[in-house]
Amino acid sequence: MAMPVLIIGRSGSGKTYSLKNFKADEVGVISVEKGRLPFRSDIKTIKVPKDPTEGQAKDAASVNAAKYVWIMKAILKAKAKSIVIDDSQYLLVNELFDRTYERSYDKFTDMAKHFRDLIHFINEMEDEDKIVYFLHHSELDTDGREKTKTCGKMLDEKLVVEGCFDIVIYCQDHKFFTQANGVSTAKTPEDMFPLEIPNDLKAVDTAIREYYGL
After folding, report:
1. How would you classify the pairing of strands 146-148 and 131-140?
2. What is the per-residue pLDDT across 5-33, written as a single tens digit (0 to 9) for each?
3. Tally of CA atoms within 13 A in the half-sphere of 211 that contains its CB
């Protein structure tokens, strides 16, 4: 099975910048929102289309469901073994805004299920060498720790996004923190990393592959 990895942090903390040491053929970047990298590089990004159905869907719910299918297909087709979903929180945020005028609670159920199903899809992929990184904004939880930013209580109270990942890294001030340490919901396997490391996703990718023998 493939491996999803979660990188959380505030906007500008250095999550996307951490891709800088990858070579162009080593990583594939799926951009949900921006489409450009914050440094000069030959790394190519592909942008999630606003409407993958090309106008065939009749409602916002179907369009947003199609975005997840589009991402899954892009991950399967990618030649690179390291894939990045940049600004993955906008999958939730954009669906929330697209469905603003729907009064039913069903939209929050859909949002949570779409996001959970994407994580499960990666966990169940047969390509064991493929690692998919979710670069995701963080927010404070009720205990004052930085956690995954979500929309709605279902992902927070019923699922707990971090629970779907074996590796969660917190990014702050262009540094990676690999354990909770009372500040975040970060977690990594024993002896994989020291507590604080540079925000170098290429080095993280190498360490993960060496640890698991990928």
Report:
1. antiparallel
2. 999 999 999 999 999 999 999 999 999 99
3. 15
Structural contact between residues 150 and 160, judged by C-beta atoms closer than 8 angstroms: no
201: left (phi over 0), alpha (psi -120 to 50) or beta: alpha
Contact 136, 6 (CB under 8 A): yes
Closest C-alpha to 165, from 130, 133, 200: 133
Task: Please name the helix (run of DSSP H) or strand (run of DSSP E) that holds residue 147, with its range, or none.
Answer: strand 146-148
Centre a 10 Å sphere on the Cβ of residue 73 and count the other Cβ atoms it contains: 11
Does residue 170 contact residue 138 with C-beta atoms inside 8 Å?
Answer: yes
Per-residue pLDDT for 159 more than 90? Answer: no
Find the helix packing angle between 106-124 and 60-77, rounded to 10°. Answer: 10
Characterise 88 by phi-psi region: left (phi > 0), alpha (psi -120 to 50), beta (else).
Answer: alpha
Please identify which residue in the block is written with the tokens 């170098």: 200
The tally of CA atoms less than 13 A away on the side-chain side of residue 167 is 27
Q: How far is CA 213 from CA 79, 119, 132, in A?
A: 20, 22, 16
Dist CA 19 CA 205 (whole Å): 10
pTM over 0.70? The answer is yes
| Number of neighbouring beta carbons within 10 Å of residue 43 | 19
